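Narrative of accomplishments. A recurring question from our advisory board has been how the design workflow behaves on a single, concrete structure rather than in aggregate. To address it, we present the structure tokens for one chain from the evaluation set, followed by the sequence designed for it. No filtering or post-editing was applied between the two.
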């Protein structure tokens, strides 16, 4: 496979987890210096839809088990679903805090402690509600020969991004239990960012 301008393959290894033995691939984004990961399981072909999770890094949720968001739960559930299916890809994207970085995310948390919601906090600091870009993901997916996607997501912007890249996309809901600490955050994502939800308590 040839390397392209947006993303460059670096190396790969086996990554045994409690759900499956994944192939861990590392890609470098030269424009930012960020290193993105692709956990691949099973054979990937152009004809069969691939289970895909595009997961943005969340240090507090994925690593520190924060209950302020649902990120860690979604990561774990996605790996479990792909592991049970025996085939799929999880992209771990280094886009902390919807693209504003770890320090700014913690600053946004402090503003949320004062009463702002997650969107208001980003806007208050001069950012967009969501600063992430998924354009480089096409080159990663093309590297593995992906054409059709069953996307594990509640975010319509990810569906739109993949569709604009030319992929056939079907969405698979990725609901995890909400709690008293993340309910307002999840409700804001539903009401202001258009996220899908099956939970009535987030829609009221």
């Amino acid at each position: 496979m040839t390397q392209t301008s947006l993303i460059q393959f670096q190396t790969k290894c086996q990554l045994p987890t409690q759900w499956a033995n994944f192939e861990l691939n590392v890609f470098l984004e030269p424009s930012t210096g960020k290193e993105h990961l692709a956990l691949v399981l099973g054979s990937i072909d152009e004809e069969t839809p691939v289970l895909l999770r595009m997961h943005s890094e969340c240090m507090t949720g994925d690593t520190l088990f924060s209950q302020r968001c649902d990120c860690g739960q979604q990561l774990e559930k996605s790996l479990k679903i792909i592991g049970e299916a025996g085939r799929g890809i999880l992209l771990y994207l280094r886009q902390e805090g919807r693209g504003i970085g770890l320090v700014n995310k913690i600053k946004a948390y402090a503003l949320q402690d004062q009463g702002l919601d997650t969107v208001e906090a980003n806007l208050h600091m001069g950012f967009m509600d969501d600063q992430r870009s998924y354009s480089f993901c096409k080159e990663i997916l093309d590297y593995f020969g992906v054409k059709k996607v069953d996307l594990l997501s509640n975010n319509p912007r990810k569906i739109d991004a993949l569709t604009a890249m030319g992929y056939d996309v079907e969405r698979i809901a990725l609901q995890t239990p909400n709690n008293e600490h993340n309910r307002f955050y999840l409700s804001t994502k539903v009401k202001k960012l258009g996220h899908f939800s099956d939970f009535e308590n987030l829609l009221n």
